[in-house]
Amino acid sequence: QSESDATQMDVLIVGAGFAGLYQLYRARGLGFKTRVLEAGTGIGGTWFWNRYPGARCDVESLDYSYSFDEKLQQDWTWSERYATQPEILRYINHVADRFELWPDIQLNTRVARADFDDASNRWTVRTEQGEIFDAQYLIMATGCLSIPQQPRFDGLSDFKGHWYHSADWPEEGVDFSGQRVGLIGTGSSGVQMTPLIAQQAQHLTVFQRTASFSVPAQNEPLDEATIREVKVHYAERRARAREAVTGHYLIANDRSALSVNDDERRAEFEFRWRGAGGGFRMLRAFNDLLSNPQSNRHAADFVRSKIREIVKPPEVAELLCPKDDLPFGAKRLCVDTDYYQTFNRDNVALVDVKASPIIRITPNGLQTTEREYELDAIVFATGFDAMTGALMAMDIRGSGGQSLREKWATGPRTYLGLAIADFPNMFIIAGPGSPSVLSNMVHSIEVHVDWITTLLETARNKAVHRVEAAPAAEEGWVRHVNEVADKTLYPVGNSWYVGANVPGKPRVFMPYVAGVPTYQKIIDGVANNNYEGFALA
Ligand code: NA7
């Protein structure tokens, strides 16, 4: 295909996960000629790729679902409090069927490059498959956790067994029966996988570099009465979610952890530990857990006391206890089912690879500075190049040929987490600088898509051809995002929130921590103020 016969689109969307599909639905609803390009052989994004055993969402299913269509939320019935990956994938496919999205979704198509043309105010988008698109608007629905961090261990190619990454799991699944399995990584993915692999494998060795905080999901099947009750009041549940900091309703305690005595504090943490509501529930036990180091310490000590209660061998319990340099919640809390309990099994071992780092993979297993471990299979749950990885994987050139990779070489900069100065007519859904990963992602996605859709409609009505964030507005937003984050303990955690997990990645705190309602007020204010900070021409 040549540029002159490029496929013409009004709106081109990259990525067919929750964000891309809803954006397609909305843009098409306004009569825009729209197409979604998706690299995978199926839709679902995160929920398409992360098929590892135990993969589940850590936000409750009744909240982690679209709210835009009343009939959809009435018709669909979730089976468990926390949905498994296969169930979420079924839901996403149901949505695509129901709203007849398929004709405008193109699978097996990975975007390689996008160039903005200042004369026509349009994007030329090239795919790895050699296709060329010409679109007025380019919307990046590329996800925050979509580029797996590939294992960089010497000797991997000589390993005689099989190896897997959590985010690139074989579609047909893996049977670990009778095998000695090594698992590297103890973030959310490793924590979810550990109990299931332990049940199946002959032996599981978990290689831990940094202990995570994990709280029990208290997952259970959703009974009919609960579902009925939620469905009768679904609109109210969604309205409460919109007012909640994380975009899903939770009982938030508006007291400081330091304003109560030891017994009261423990009772509050116990209440949260036993109830549902995932990691977010624990973070809302008091109002200053993420701003006051002393309050945070109380939460951290509570979880450590639980680990010591659950895990029988004291030395294993100590190793599983997160150290003081990781504040509670400063890295995404893990939400588990029987994670700590699994270390009481005879066929499970925990190895401290901070004390004895991994040197290399050997043909028969893995070598640390201490000894060699013989393994039949290795599982990497080593995380993602988060939030910026998918955007940086493409060669995106904005106004005057400006390269996004160069612009972001020292860290991501956006206006409202939605737009980038010098990259006109391009929007990011749940990008760096928006609440995104610190919220119920589906809710944040709906907030962004609705806002972008209104902007597209306004631009069309006003015969605007070019929408562009002003550099000064971007500058101000970046400053604001940092100021808000610096008042919290979030930046202290060495996590993917700051890019600390990817060697060489610039250290910048990426999500906007002030919460979804505050954020929504700001972006609505921008829109109501004639898109303040944007140039519309
Ligand atoms: P995470 O949370 O980034 O966890 C990755 C884990 O892998 C973490 O424990 C890392 O230890 C470990 N890791 C990474 N590289 C290595 C090497 N080279 N050696 C040993 N250990 C390593 O990714 P997840 O997939 O679990 O979860 C991502 C998000 O998905 C999660 O937060 C939820 O929002 C859903 P480290 O901490 O860097 O020492």
TrEMBL record:
InterPro entries: FAD-binding_Monooxygenases, FAD/NAD-bd_sf. Its cofactor is FAD. GO terms for molecular function: monooxygenase activity. The keyword Oxidoreductase applies. Gene3D superfamilies: FAD/NAD(P)-binding domain. Keywords: FAD, Flavoprotein, Monooxygenase, NADP, Oxidoreductase. Coiled coil: none annotated. It comes from the Bacteria. Pfam families: Pyr_redox_3 (PF13738). Belongs to the FAD-binding monooxygenase family. This is NAD(P)/FAD-dependent oxidoreductase. It comes from Noviherbaspirillum pedocola.
